[in-house]
Amino acid sequence: MMSFRPLATIRLRVGESPVWDERRDALFACDVLGQSVVLVGLDGDIQGTWSFDQTVGSLGLTESGRLVVALGRDVVLFDPDSGVVAPLARLPEPDTNRLNDGKVGPNGCFYVGSMDDRPDKKPVGALYKVSADGSTERVGDGFFVSNGLAWSPDGSTIFHSDSRGPYIDSYAFDPQRGTLSSRRRLTMLNDQLGRPDGGACDALGHYWSAGVSAGVLNRFSESGELIERYPVPVNAPTMPCFCGQALSRIAVTSLTEGLTDAARVDFDGSILIADASVTGVPVGRMRGL
After folding, report:
1. What are the helix (H) ranges across 176-234?
2. Which of 158, 219, 166 is nearest to 196 (CA)?
């Protein structure tokens, strides 16, 4: 079992998208509804907090050290050192949608999904590839809440979940064209098992899924077999991220939004950290930016 502790004295409304920055030796994460990005060292030191005027769905790193950030229905570049925000792409999403989970792929492009932001959700979300020149390509659609992006160690497989499906799929990934094919249903889930939120891959090719409704991290084989189930000391873990030296630790974001006062526990909304049982797969940087 892994022993989790809070990384910092921080409480996020909807903590998401933890990303390890090995250059800064620190972890970026966002608060979706708090409309902010934080940078936290593994010693718990909060090294930066930046506010925005829209929901912050997800983020990734670029080669230059800037961040690529999903804001509302836009993708922007953000420089944490100067605070400068520059537009990159506007995605053709309806007003009822917003961008959600995103991650830089092994081909150096940013992949970001959308979701129906209404309480009564419809399968109108999509998944996009965003290139350094600002061009976009829709590579998937028909999702309630696009989520859980992660790539296998060799980059040939991409994992993707729909939190309201609720299911986890895998696709063959073409590193040259950056497209998805051969969709395969890995597993169906429920509230008790843990609806799938954010995801990450380990060096053995296993997929880790934040079971947001069950307070667990679920670890699946490439074929969809549930291998291990790790309890997390929060009601709603949202996304795992391998971090630290040799990616031997694992950080997990969580939320407080929607939890009643009576249901909340001490660590809800925090970023948790633990020594991992296996090392993780490095996540790339957006190339050309």
Report:
1. none
2. 166
Average pLDDT score over residue span 10-14: 94
How far CA 224 is from CA of 142, 147, 171, 187, in Å, comes to: 21, 17, 13, 6
d(CA 84, CA 179): 31
Strand partners, 285: 61
Q: Token match 């299911």: residue?
A: 167
Identify which of 73, 72, 80 has the alpha carbon closest to the alpha carbon of residue 19.
80
Compute the average pLDDT of residues 129-135.
96
**Contact (CB, 8 A) for 268 and 235:** yes
Domain locations in the chain? 5-286
Token reading at 207: 């997929």
Domain 5-286 has CATH 3.40.50.300: no
Q: What is the pLDDT of residues 159-201, one digit of tens each?
A: 999 999 999 999 999 988 899 999 999 999 999 999 999 999 9
